[in-house]
UniProtKB/TrEMBL annotation:
Keyword Membrane set for record: yes
Functional summary from the UniProt entry: Required for the export of heme to the periplasm for the biogenesis of c-type cytochromes.
Membrane topology recorded in Swiss-Prot or TrEMBL: Multi-pass membrane protein
Entry coiled-coil feature ranges: none
GO biological process: cytochrome c biosynthetic process; cytochrome complex assembly
UniProt name for this protein: Heme exporter protein B
Membrane spanning stretches: 12-37, 43-64, 85-108, 128-150, 157-182, 188-214
Keyword RNA-binding: no
InterPro entries hit by this protein: Cyt_c_biogenesis_CcmB, Cyt_c_CcmB_bac
MF terms (GO), sorted A to Z: heme transmembrane transporter activity
Predominant place of localization: membrane
Keywords: Cell inner membrane, Cell membrane, Cytochrome c-type biogenesis, Membrane, Transmembrane, Transmembrane helix, Transport
Entry's family note: Belongs to the CcmB/CycW/HelB family.
């Protein structure tokens, strides 16, 4: 599993510059908002956490279609399905490598992009923390869509269509937890704990559903 994790991590970084493309897209989405909203700094700081979360969500969707595509192209997907190691554990490892290469850079870049939105220190910290906790759920959900669309010649758009509605609860509770810190008076802990619960739930359900879809694809 360690070898698979390191292999997928290298492929995610090298194949099309996945991490760099995600950060650049994240930067583009967040940077253009002030031009559309105008010079109202209070408005920017108020909508800043939601914009950063939406930008991170859209950026995370970019590389999901390549989660199993390399194995499909070189024929090693059949070997992954037939190996002795449980396929669920293999999918979980691939998801962890994918998030490390594409999701973690978005979390690291979010404080810098929060400055573009005139967010204060508490808002920037809360946004980064909620992204750190909630963004893995997007990868686990995306693994299911990537497994369903892996056999299709142009499955990238289909993956986004399948995954985006399922990520709405993650977005809602991530933004709610951030606003609880910034504005109050609602407590921060309930939406934050629900966000953690969503990540843990999809960490179990996502790899299992993706493994089932991969088995059906290779049959």
């Amino acid at each position: 599993m360690t070898a698979l994790f390191l292999r997928d991590l290298k492929l995610s970084v090298r194949a099309g510059g996945g991490a760099l493309i995600g950060i650049l897209f994240f930067l583009t989405v967040v940077a253009v908002i002030p031009f559309g909203v105008g010079p109202d700094l209070k408005l920017l700081s108020r909508i800043g956490p939601a914009i950063v979360w939406i930008g991170a969500l859209l950026s995370a969707l970019l590389g999901l279609d390549r989660l199993f595509q390399a194995e499909r192209d070189d024929g090693s997907l059949d070997l992954l399905v037939m190996q002795e190691t449980p396929l669920v554990l293999t999918v979980l490892t691939k998801c962890a490598a994918h998030w490390t290469a594409t999701g973690l850079p978005l979390v690291i870049a979010s404080p810098l992009l929060g400055l573009f939105m005139n967010m204060n220190e508490m808002a920037i910290g809360a946004t980064a923390l909620t992204l750190l906790v909630g963004s893995p759920a997007i990868t686990f959900i995306g693994a299911v869509g990537a497994a369903v669309a892996v056999a299709l010649p142009r499955g990238g758009l289909l993956v986004s269509i399948l995954v985006l509605p399922l990520t709405i609860p993650v977005l809602i509770f991530g933004v709610s937890a951030t606003y609880a810190v910034v504005e109050g008076p609602q407590p921060f802990l309930p939406p934050f704990l629900i966000l953690i619960a969503l990540t843990l739930f999809f960490a179990v359900l996502g790899p299992a559903a993706a493994a089932l879809a991969l088995r059906n694809t290779t049959d």
